[in-house]
Design brief:
heterodimer; A: 117 residues; mainly beta; six-stranded antiparallel β-sheet; three-stranded antiparallel β-sheet; 0% helix; 47% strand; B: 362 residues; eight-stranded parallel β-sheet; 8 strands
């Protein structure tokens, strides 16, 4: 069920646009040409997830001391405890937890942004 | 004392070199003998002495029949400790060698470490095959320490590397040559309070400041294991050296569950800082680290101890030890007697046999 949540220009460059869609608190992020929508609720301890940062993260390396940055603009980090979730799959990254965030399909038509709830 | 029927490996026994450095002189060159002439022939004691007879950790009743220091005679230790208790193997580590970290001079520490090892190989390992040695190294010079490990580490009587700690956490690359050599030789690293903690510029510091009594410093020994275990795990030492094992002897174990919970909780939050840890930190501890049982904690209810044993997976991680001839010796007949037999066997024998690669005695 699609709902229009605003215009592309309404979404900030870095922070989320936080909206209520039929009672659901949803955060919408824009990174380049990619858009993500997540429920504004962390499954760990119910933090306002959409206030977290979206970036990449350090990928597992299995080599002590080595750093390898990846998943650019695809990881949301909870603002409270730093748990990292994949914005595409909703999964908590790299075995930290089995919990998932709620993600929504998002589309853009003629500058209008729609979230499928 | 009735001889128990179960098999026992005592993972913490302390031999003593009579005369301190004087006793090592036959194992030093003439030049080094002269270097230690006179007042430099003794290794320093911590200023906070035990409030016990003789102001020493060594029990008076361990004194040898001819008046020697407790632990100084392998025959006497055999007669009063190995035989009556039915001990299959006793893992030796030298408290005197632990004092090498009080020495600011690297060359002296390196030289004495080799002398300690040669003394114990000559006087103890050759005397009775039940004695097995945690050879010591001087951490001042990790390259020289690695060389010492490779010099004698392949001998049958050498079963571990006793690494007295200086004020550099164990995850630091300073120690990597030592870990590399130990892993290569299949030897676990053995850690033990040295009696120098908080007392010397070159020794390990206690958290928060300098204790002012023996009871304080003894109570705070677990801090040293906590700090170093944390460093080992999060620096990825067990990732870099996947074959390395570590035994934390006489640091207690009651603190371990809390620390493991904290590691895992923090890893979930800060994994990106240590991306080389691909699983929960507690699993690295359970796979790579072992703990000795002495001194056994005495909670107000026995069931608390059983819960702790379960939390730390003692059937994998705990090794029985006496700490003979020190004041707080735990004896098999009064330790863990109400544990189920399978776990008791793991603690009293199997875990040590696996860690030190000890074959059953015929």
């Amino acid at each position: 069920m699609e709902r229009k949540i605003g215009r592309v220009d309404d979404i900030p460059q870095t922070d989320a646009l936080i909206v209520q869609v039929e009672g659901l608190p949803i955060g919408v992020f824009k990174r380049g040409e990619r858009f993500f929508a997540v429920k504004n609720l962390c499954p760990h301890k119910r933090a306002p997830l959409a206030l977290g940062t979206v970036s990449g993260t350090m990928l597992p390396t299995a080599c002590a001391g080595e750093l390898k940055y990846g998943l650019e603009d695809q990881v949301i980090r909870c603002p409270w405890h730093g748990w990292e979730f994949d914005l595409v799959s909703g999964k908590c990254l790299f075995g930290v937890s089995d919990s998932k965030i709620k993600t929504y399909a998002i589309s853009v038509r003629d500058g209008d942004v729609y979230v499928d709830i | 004392m009735n001889k128990p029927t179960m098999r026992i490996i005592d993972s913490d026994v302390h031999p003593w070199v009579p005369g301190d450095i004087e006793g090592l002189k036959p194992y030093l060159s003439k030049s080094w003998q002269m270097r230690f002439e006179g007042r430099r022939a003794t290794l320093p004691d911590h200023p906070l002495r035990p409030p016990l007879a003789g102001a020493t950790s060594i029990r008076r009743d361990a004194t040898t029949p001819d008046g020697g220091v407790g632990g100084s005679d392998p025959a006497y230790v055999r007669d009063v400790h190995l035989e009556p208790l039915g001990i299959d193997y006793a893992i030796l580590s030298s408290i005197q060698a632990g004092k090498l970290v009080s020495l600011p001079n690297t060359a002296e520490a390196v030289t004495l470490a080799s002398a300690f090892n040669d003394y114990f190989r000559d006087k103890w390992l050759a005397f009775d095959t039940r004695y097995r040695l945690a050879m010591c190294v001087a951490v001042h010079d990790p390259i020289a320490a690695a060389k010492e490990i490779r010099r004698i580490g392949a001998e049958e009587g050498i079963v571990a590397v006793f690494m007295p700690l200086t004020n550099i956490l164990m995850g630091n690359c300073h120690y990597f040559p030592i870990y590399e050599a130990a892993q290569e030789m299949g030897l676990p690293i053995l850690l033990h309070p040295t009696g120098t903690e908080g007392g010397f510029q070159t020794s390990v510091s206690f958290a928060g400041g300098v204790p002012s009594t023996y009871v304080e410093r003894h109570s705070c020994f677990p801090q040293i294991a906590m700090g170093n275990l944390t460093s080992l795990v999060f620096e990825g030492v067990f990732v870099r050296f996947p074959g390395l094992k570590v035994l934390a002897a006489e640091f207690g174990f009651g603190w371990l569950p809390h620390v493991l919970w904290r590691y895992d909780q923090n890893w979930r939050q800060f994994r990106r800082e240590v991306p080389w840890l691909e699983k929960e930190p507690s699993s690295y501890v359970l796979d790579h680290v072992r703990f000795t049982s002495q001194p056994l904690e005495e909670p107000e209810k026995d069931e608390y101890l059983l819960q702790i044993l379960e939390m730390i997976h003692a059937e994998r991680t705990l090794l029985f030890s006496t700490d003979y001839p020190h004041w707080d010796t735990d004896y098999p007949q009064t330790t863990f007697q109400r544990l189920p037999a399978p776990m008791r066997d793991r603690i009293f024998y199997d875990n040590a046999a696996e860690l030190f690669n000890l074959q059953p005695r015929t």
